[in-house]
């Protein structure tokens, strides 16, 4: 992963190193003797003129060249031969030559000393020692520093480009995320808007991918809630309409007819109450987070078997749980899911065949299968059974189509998966897959 952390850290240190290196090089560059001697106008052709006049024997004119240098530029010059003897000077103190081995005052004094060694065509070597006031040198450097200024300009441009690239690489993805947040709040979120950003291999790419998943889940949740509201409105309208019709008939009916209508009205009230109760259970599913607890799965299944045998003694329930299986999860959620599936199986199973409950341990997985020998479900509706208010054909009066929806969401809260299918030998089979480690 091309981490954004290392990118920012690398850019910061690159800018820091580049700034330090350019500062050091610029300082060294401005203070080099060779650069001053080659660029300062006072030293242009100085040594060539002096050397030509000196070797032609015109000593006074050679001396005059050095005096002119002192008068025009305040630069004092002394010339020594190979033996270290002073041969020419522009200083008034001719008898007190500059000590060419003394370097101590070159840095901290008010004068800057420059040395220049020249060889003549005749084979003679001379050493020029120039003394220039630091104020004069600084004044000239300020007015003739185009080269260093160009170097500084290039450094500023490079640092600016690095900073802009780093800034845009961070702010542009963040702006895309910001627009995605606004779209999400306005329920107009489009997952493809962040698809390109999610392909990045750094932290922003991971963030965009996670945001895409979150946005998609939230949009699915909002769509599910809106669909649920529409379905609830439709489902509540039917029993309410029947109640209104029944009450209207009861108002005009005789006493004997009212006695026949009241049980039907009470039944409609019970159905409406049951429907509202299931809707409330479904609405609380996302907020309900029971604490996990340790329990034996086989003991829980035996308890459910006894409960359903008591209410439906004509139905046989065959349980196959091979050994005690200890689970650590929300027992109430699993019990609710198993109870819903077992109640559906008992409802549609013929009395001459048993409802089968089988527990199978697999690698890192636990399967709980509940099989009945009923008519099964139309293959077209099989994939839609867990949607709210969807019921199989021919079974419209047996429920409200919320039981399997509640069951699936319960299993998902437990970290598992619910699979519904028609059995190959007839009947219907519901399988709960749960993560398990022994």
Characteristic terms for this protein:
about 450 residues, alpha+beta, Beta-Lactamase, Helix Hairpins, Heat Shock Protein 90, 5-stranded mixed β-sheet, 13 helices, 11 strands
Name the shape in a single word: rod-shaped
Number of domains: 3
Record field, number of beta strands? 11
Q: Do you know the CATH architecture of the largest domain?
A: 2-Layer Sandwich
The low-pLDDT segments are 93-108
Description:
The protein is α+β, with helices and mostly antiparallel strands and 438 residues long. 55% of the residues lie in helices and 16% in strands. It has 3 domains: 41-143, Beta-Lactamase, CATH 3.30.450; 204-284, Helix Hairpins (Orthogonal Bundle); 293-435, Heat Shock Protein 90, CATH 3.30.565. It has a 5-stranded mixed beta sheet. Strands 2-1-4-3 form a 4-stranded antiparallel beta sheet. The protein has a two-stranded antiparallel ribbon with strand order 5-7. The longest helix has 50 residues, at 203-252.
Summarize the structure.
The chain has 438 residues and is α+β, with helices and mostly antiparallel strands.
List the helices and strands and how they pair.
Elements: H1 4-30, H2 33-39, H3 46-55, H4 59-73, E1 76-80, E2 86-89, H5 105-108, E3 111-119, E4 125-133, H6 134-143, H7 146-185, H8 203-252, H9 255-284, E5 293-296, H10 297-311, E6 317-320, E7 326-329, H11 331-348, E8 355-362, E9 365-372, H12 379-382, H13 403-413, E10 417-422, E11 428-435
Parallel strand pairs: 6-8
Antiparallel strand pairs: 1-2, 1-4, 3-4, 5-7, 8-9, 9-11, 10-11
Helix pairs in contact: 1-7, 3-4, 7-8, 8-9, 10-11, 11-13
């Amino acid at each position: 992963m091309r981490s954004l952390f290392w990118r920012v850290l690398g850019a910061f240190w690159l800018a820091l190193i580049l700034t330090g290196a350019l500062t050091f090089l610029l300082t060294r560059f401005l203070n080099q003797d060779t650069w001053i001697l080659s660029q300062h106008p006072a030293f242009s052709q100085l040594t060539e003129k002096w050397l030509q006049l000196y070797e032609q024997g015109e000593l006074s004119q050679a001396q005059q060249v050095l005096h002119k240098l002192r008068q025009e530029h305040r630069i004092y010059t002394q010339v020594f031969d190979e033996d270290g003897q002073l041969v020419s000077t522009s200083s008034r103190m001719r008898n007190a030559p500059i000590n060419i081995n003394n370097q101590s005052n070159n840095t901290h004094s008010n004068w800057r000393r420059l040395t220049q060694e020249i060889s003549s065509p005749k084979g003679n070597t001379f050493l020029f020692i120039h003394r220039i006031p630091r104020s004069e040198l600084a004044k000239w450097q300020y007015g003739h520093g185009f080269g260093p200024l160009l170097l500084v300009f290039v450094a500023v441009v490079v640092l600016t480009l690095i900073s802009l690239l780093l800034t845009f690489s961070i702010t542009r993805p963040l702006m895309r995320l910001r627009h995605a947040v606004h779209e999400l709040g306005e329920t107009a979120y489009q997952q493809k808007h962040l698809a390109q950003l999610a392909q990045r291999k750094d932290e922003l790419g991971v963030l965009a991918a996670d945001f895409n998943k979150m946005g998609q889940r939230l949009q699915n949740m909002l769509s599910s809630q809106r669909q649920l509201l529409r379905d609830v409105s439709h489902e509540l309208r039917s029993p309410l309409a029947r109640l209104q019709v029944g009450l209207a008939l009861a108002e005009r009916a005789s006493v004997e007819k009212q006695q026949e209508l009241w049980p039907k009205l009470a039944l409609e009230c019970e159905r409406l109450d049951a429907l509202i109760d299931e809707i409330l259970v479904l609405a609380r599913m996302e907020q309900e987070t029971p604490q996990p607890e340790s329990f034996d799965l086989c003991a829980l299944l035996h308890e459910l078997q006894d409960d359903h045998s008591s209410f439906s003694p004509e139905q046989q329930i065959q349980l196959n749980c091979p050994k005690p299986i200890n689970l650590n999860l929300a027992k109430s959620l699993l019990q609710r899911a198993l109870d819903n599936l077992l109640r559906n199986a008992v409802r549609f199973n013929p009395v001459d065949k048993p409802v089968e409950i089988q527990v199978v341990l697999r690698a890192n997985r636990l399967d709980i299968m509940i099989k009945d020998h009923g008519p099964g479900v139309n293959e077209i509706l099989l994939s839609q059974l867990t949607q709210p208010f969807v019921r199989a054909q021919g079974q419209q009066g047996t429920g409200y189509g919320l039981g399997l929806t509640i069951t699936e969401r319960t299993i998902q809260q437990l970290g598992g998966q619910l699979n519904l299918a028609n059995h190959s030998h007839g009947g219907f089979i519901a399988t709960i897959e749960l993560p398990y480690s022994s």
